[in-house]
Amino acid sequence: MVQKTYDTIIVGAGPAGLTAGIYAARIGLKTLILEGKLPSGRAIEAAVVENFPRFPHGITGAELIQRMTDQAKRFGAELNFPEEVVDINLSGETKIANTKKEAYQARALILSTGAQRKKLLVPGACMHVVRVPLEMARSSSTNGGI
Ligand SMILES: Cc1cc2nc3c(=O)[nH]c(=O)nc-3n(C[C@H](O)[C@H](O)[C@H](O)COP(=O)(O)OP(=O)(O)OC[C@H]3O[C@@H](n4cnc5c(N)ncnc54)[C@H](O)[C@@H]3O)c2cc1C
Predict the structure, then answer these.
(1) C-beta separation of 34 from 10 below 8 A
(2) What is this structure's pTM?
(3) Who has the most CB within 10 Å: 47, 69, 89, 116?
């Protein structure tokens, strides 16, 4: 049963979701951000973010996320975590997001769930990212690989 109604529901509290939350809440939309883990996304892994305007000497990913979270909350966005969205329904005019705890509905649903690194399915491999030389990638892809 749907219990809670918002103008906008945002799934994911990484940089994209928090930014959407700042904009939505700032124009007065009743905004809910649902985050399955902790507000942060992959930015938390960045020791220093150097390409974000306003920080000429860089800022840690953790501090950047904290500031984004504070800013979204200051405009009135609600942030629920850990609350993973396990099912959505976009078919009707009212969009529905279900978590294990609750069902939410809104006029708009923004999915900002980021991306996950592709894991190598190689026994013993523990690295997630492999840089493949361009020429090797080209020849593998023409041979049906990669
Ligand atoms: C080590 C490292 C250093 C980096 N340095 C920089 C840098 O200097 N400059 C730069 O511009 N970028 C940098 N990046 C990239 C940057 O972190 C990503 O581009 C950015 O985090 C993407 O933001 P996002 O919000 O789209 O996704 P994500 O950060 O992936 O956030 C997605 C969020 O959605 C949540 N989520 C997923 N599914 C669900 C669900 N079903 N229900 C609820 N929540 C869900 C996840 O838990 C996560 O918190 C770096 C990345 C890494 C790993």
Answers:
(1) yes
(2) 0.86
(3) 69
